[in-house]
Amino acid sequence: MAIKSILIDTNAYTAFKRHQNQAVEIIENVDIIAINTIIIGELLGGFALGNKQETNRYELEKFLESSRIKIFPIDEKTSEYYAIIYHQLRKKGKPIPTNDIWIAATAIQHDLILFTYDSDFQHIENLKLGNCLADFI
Questions:
Q1: What strand order describes the sheet that includes 113-115?
Q2: pTM > 0.70
Q3: Longest Cα pair distance anywhere in the chain, in angstroms?
Q4: How confident is the prediction along the chain (137 residues), in pLDDT tens digits per residue?
Q5: Of 5, 27, 126, 130, which cross-links 135 as Cys (Cβ 3.0–4.6 Å)?
Q6: Number of folded domains in the chain?
Q7: What domain range is 84 assigned to?
């Protein structure tokens, strides 16, 4: 049973690369894996801090070359969703990291389920979240 498409968060990619069963199961059952330029930047930044930077970059490049991967840039429409989310969170008194708002904006803009293990996203209206296979089916 294949899942149509998801947006993979930074921590979900990391879980997948660490062969965590839940993450591997989800990735293996997805037709299209979306990622945005913010997530790629977070991954590259994390790699730069580690001692396996070249290996991690190479693995990411191979991952991104897959025909199942779709890379979304941040565009004007994403910015509009960002502004809405930012305002909603400020109003609720629930600020979250800026990058997470961009990631959520991308998911909402493209009607994708965000595959993440980050609880910060729970405060965002109209954002579909998942972190186990049952959430995506």
A1: 69-72, 30-36, 3-8, 113-115, 128-130
A2: yes
A3: 42
A4: 568 999 999 999 999 999 999 999 999 999 999 999 999 999 999 999 999 999 999 999 999 999 999 999 999 999 999 999 999 999 999 999 999 999 999 999 999 999 999 999 999 999 999 998 888 87
A5: 130
A6: 1
A7: 3-136
